[in-house]
Amino acid sequence: MMHSGLFWWIGAGVLIVLELMQGTFYLLMVALGFIAAALARLAGAGLPLQFGVAAVVALGAVIVLRKSRYGRKAKARAEAARNPDVNLDIGSTLTVPAWHDGRARTSYRGASWEVELAPGEPEDANLYEITALRGNCLVVVARKHAAGA
User: Fold this and answer.
1) In CA terms, which of 22, 83, 131, 146 is 20 to 30 Å from 1?
2) Domain annotation covers residue 148
3) Strands across the sheet containing 111-117
């Protein structure tokens, strides 16, 4: 099977199917390496050169992917603490009975939570809005009153 080059086409197909199930684009980049090796086989390259072409193309494609916006997932993870699509509590309001140096403990959704006041926010507001979650600590700001309220 290796002699006919069918290995590269089947391997690329399997990697593409696996990529469709995973959705990270990395297996697709390796599949591009397999396709390049299959094309090198069709051009008459020997087996060692086919493996070299597969490795170089796959590695190059992965590097290009890492530098693109699709390869940057770490930034999205870092922003998850402030993303209301990830944490549904962001934007919710709560009351804080007493502050102690910008920190407090309050009941929210039937549980006791640590609360931290965002820098520069007043401690005398009636309502606070959750802007971020840091572990089990809610970061809040004083809720702005709507105009005419």
Assistant:
1) 22
2) no
3) 93-94, 128-134, 137-142, 111-117, 103-108
